[in-house]
Amino acid sequence: MAEEFTFANVRRAVTGIARYVASQNPAGARVIVGRDPRFLGETFCAMAAEILAGHGITALVIAEAAPTPTIAYAVLREHTDGAINFTASHNPPEYNGIKFSTPDGAPALPEVTKKIEAEIAALDAVGGSTPGSKQNPSAKSLDPKPAYMTRLKEIVDLKSIQRAGVRVVYDPFWGAARGYPDHLLREAGVDVSVIHDCRDVLFGGHAPEPDDHLLGAARAKMREKRAHLGIATDGDADRFGVVDEDGAFVQPNYIIALLFDYLVESRGWRNGVAKSVATTNLINALARYHKVELHETPVGFKYIGELIKQDKIVIGGEESAGLSIRHHVPEKDGVLAGLLCCEMVAQRGKSLGHQLKELFAKVGSFYPRRENFRLTPEVKEKFTGKLESDPRDFAGHRVGEVVRKDGLKLIFDDGSWVCYRLSGTEPVVRVYSEARSEDGLEKLNAAAKQWIFD
Description:
Helices cover 40% and strands 20% of the residues.
């Protein structure tokens, strides 16, 4: 914020979106405008509404901070031409961003974002001004929460959580989902305790990211309440974090696999599963076990969203803590993920750790990890050249398959693998590795790191 995310750039971006929407629907277009709780969010929403009005588009403005999946559901329910969402998701408080959702409630695909970028470039080329309507008579207010909460009650068996006596701690990380999963659980008679339940535009002084190292306060509250489960959401509630009853963080890779297994078992759905190329192969093994089709996508939930829209999958997820399910929004939903975990623990009567052991007994053990490594310009140039090769051998492992769906993924004969993806925004390489034993993971991870810098 104040460097690249400026008032001037927001105007440019929103004008580009407005021009794109108007080109798709020249008369009577409606666009939802929402935000997470970040600094100046209300101001950016008001600015967007004015710009949309200047292009003959009705803005449906959400007054309070709203989760990204709630906004996605509102797009579908209200049949709008899309949504503009001011959010930087799980990123630190000094960042902000603009997310555009298309009329299907999904994140805009590359072909749409390219058209919006072209509109912005065309405007810049002529030094065009941004029309706006100060009176903004066409703007309307929208409260998407009641309809979304009703939808969650249809999906999640909240009464089973209450009957099982499951005690829950919820950490919204000062974010947009305050008053969402906790209200639903409390309404169902579930014992739920909430922390960080106020607006803080600085998110406690760190990124609103429900990751292992930031869940200490949730663990402390769980010990105090003798809770069976801790659930958390990030700044805009599209990502989730889950803590087991013993305080262990259950990584998203495992949550997606557990919920896949549970949904097949409890709902009887067998129409497929989707995962990004960097997500655990435990899901591959489960797909074989349940005899359902596996879809492996590039990284980016928009690709999984397409499969949800086509009703090809039971569940789709990414190791970066994003998932959604059949008959729901084609967008990551951290609120839903946490509630489904509560239902799964209640229905199975076992901790997540115990369920994971049973899963390993069924299809074998999988130990995934992700690390980021910063690269000097010299190392990055050399490593980029290396990524173009197809190695046949990797630190004593024979390479059985090379996958280039997104970055470079090397799959070895023993079922372990490593995947390299260069960041498009910073001098960083993301390294994903997975082995069939904990000892094997340590060795593979060390080799994966060495391969970068050799």
